[in-house]
Description:
40% of the residues are buried. The chain has six helices and ten strands; from the N terminus they run E-H-E-E-H-E-H-E-E-E-H-E-H-E-E-H. It has helices at residues 22-29, 56-66, 76-86, 113-123, 161-173, 197-200, and strands at residues 10-14, 34-38, 50-52, 72-75, 91-94, 96-97, 107-108, 128-132, 179-182, 193-194. The chain is of the alpha/beta class.
Amino acid sequence: xxxxxxxxxxxxxxxxxxxxxxxxxxxxxxxxxxxxxxxxxxxxxxxxxxxxxxxxxxxxxxxxxxxxxxxxxxxxxxxxxxxxxxxxxxxxxxxxxxxxxxxxxxxxxxxxxxxxxxxxxxxxxxxxxxxxxxxxxxxxxxxxxxxxxxxxxxxxxxxxxxxxxxxxxxxxxxxxxxxxxxxxxxxxxxxxxxxxxxxxxx
Length: 202
């Protein structure tokens, strides 16, 4: 991942949970933190240092809107499939495994894109990772800040939030070398400390 010449020591990961607000995103913009936008959240922060997503259907659906961005990252097989299909190598790849572990050269993939993005930030050198938009629940009966995915394109629509919580809490338990703080306004995650974005990015 040598193309990413940023200071990743403090990294904000912006998920697409329903509690995410533009005010939170704007506050991040005014800070000096490095930012990973997960999935559709790039639409709120086109200035993010990285756009990350694991779903090849998502990349295909968003290929025109995201083609401008210099740092689009995904898992290795997905990136290869996308780049060959469209002959436009806009996706960078990171190796992955389905065997759980905390690695320095690859990520464990068993859940959603936010789960993997946390590992990516750690590999890049993050010592503090701030999460916003990581509800991992259907807050106020909403599944994302933008509503629902297009059912004609995506078969799943944040359906497995219980598994997401189990997976991420297990991951966080094994990442004690990083200060991970959840600043999502609403969340089901219990495996890391809670705070407000204004208290973590002064």
